[in-house]
Design brief:
Blueprint (H helix, E strand, L loop, with lengths): L1 H18 L3 H15 L10 H19 L2 H15 L4 H16 L9 H10 L5 H13 L8 H10 L4 H24 L10 H6 L3 H8 L13 H20 L24 H20 L3 H6 L1 H26 L1 H14 L3 H13 L2 H14 L4 H7 L13 H9 L17 H22 L1
Helix pairs in contact: 1-2, 1-15, 2-15, 3-8, 3-12, 3-13, 3-15, 4-5, 4-12, 5-7, 5-9, 6-7, 7-9, 7-20, 7-21, 8-18, 9-21, 12-13, 15-18, 17-18, 19-21
Amino acid sequence: MIWIEFAVLVGMILVGSQMKGIGLGVMGMVGLFIFLFLFKMKPTDPPLDVMLIIMAIVTTAATLQASGGLDYLVSLAERIIRSNPSNITFIAPFTVYFLCLFAGTAHIVYSLLPIISEVSAKKRIRPERPLSISVIASHLALTGSPMSAATAAIVVILGYPGALLDIMKICIPACIIGILIGCFSVFKKGAELNDDLIFIEKMKDTEFAKSMEAEVEGEVKPLKPGAKISVLIFTFAIVLIVIAGAFPKLVPSFEPGVKTLAVAANGSLSMVTIISVITLTASAAMMLITKTSTADVTKASLFTSMASAVVSVFGVVWMSSTFMNSNEVLIQKGLGGIVADYPWTFAIAVFIMGVLMFSQAATTKTMMPLGIVLGLPPSALIAIFPAVNSDFVLPGYPTLLAAINFDRTGSTRIGKYVINHSFNVPGVVAIVVTIATGFLLGSFLL
């Protein structure tokens, strides 16, 4: 019976991922409907914690965007990328990584992709190289950023004081090393641009050739008056979250009692409460101090993407957790021994689920509780955490498609067999190295 139920689970995820947008959420509910009324499974609690975290964090990031803070950060990143175009294959991905690590969202990379493409093309560096690893870097930044929903989700799942600090001190250096090796994996990828047949054909177009010979100049965009202030407020919010996670005794506590969404059983505030209160307070401060209207925030592209993320997590995670909970004994019996002897094998399962779900937060919320059931220690779960970034394998994620579209030379592409696209080699290399480094760091830091 478990295999039939598993087939339903995977089938709903596959159909939902093809539908894009809220597809995962609505198809997750279809799967949950089948589990409840056909297989008589007992439903778990809906993933309200992750949904609230996504709403709070994305609202704050959208406020930063509406107040001009993201534009200011992008201008700084653009300046760094243009400063040394000859080494763009290394400079661009690390600039992207730290920017996304700070902002807690990979979607900010859209503003940098055309810059990376143009700068590399005009220096006759194959754009596929910096573009591919930069997209991977934008994803890896979410596993370690205190402002990302995925990191917040695993902090809640691990549930011990100082979990956020442990995640940051393992995942951030591990991801940096993984990205570095990923850069080397694409350093000589493909033919040199001047030898690329597609580029040679494009250069026959006079207008295209003229644009490729133009000087590399950055367009100076006027910033909103409150841009820098909003970045300072956002930074202060990040610092407060890290301090609250690292030093739980500084956070108000109450009498022990029944565990709720807001307060843990020992009376301490949950990370859901801490993150939500701090981020939305920061959002309010940005709006009041920079005079950013609430209408501008709700019109921001990050805010409009929030509904899709929340619905997707709501449906697919609730379906998946119900399946996992109903089959917990069988899963533990079948995988417990293997995972106990070889903890890294759980990373393969997380990686595969990430490919299907197209969401780091949803994959985290679905798979990490299973890792705890299978007996994996926190150090192993933190090391495996970056495996949730496997949404690049099937080339349907928006950041991948944007990179392909922004590369006017045609070097960044999807291959004949679909999965042989520009992002798989740097993605797999970076994630494997990151996980291996995470296990190594965890062995003596935790």
